[in-house]
Amino acid sequence: MIINSILLRLIISAIVGLAIGLIFKHKDYPRVFALICVGAALVTIVSIEFFRFTYLPWHSDPGRIAAQIISALGFIGAGFIWISEKKEIIGLAHSAALWYTAIIGMFIGTGLSTVTVAVLTFVAMLYIVGTTIIRKMK
Fold it and tell me: What pTM did the predictor assign?
């Protein structure tokens, strides 16, 4: 039963990551975002399940492993940000999207389906409103 639950969470995280990656219309981004989301979900699942199966005499913090996702994304996200020859910052939105994709993957990994749906709805609305505002500013 637990294997089915884990597999379902990984499939959902792959679909969500692909969907977020498709927003940016770059050929490699759907795969990158799917891998980030699945990876974050998987690390979160390992973080939770590892301590469930070990019968250690001390109290442990399963959040310690999952917390490293945010640190890793800081390094990966920094690679998306560049300053162009025109002195413009490029890739900041992509970096932020990678970051929140990992956090959504963490939500999926924990199995918090209601929170995940709420966050995805909020992010989709934010993207639509932000895109509309940017178009009107041009």
Answer: 0.83
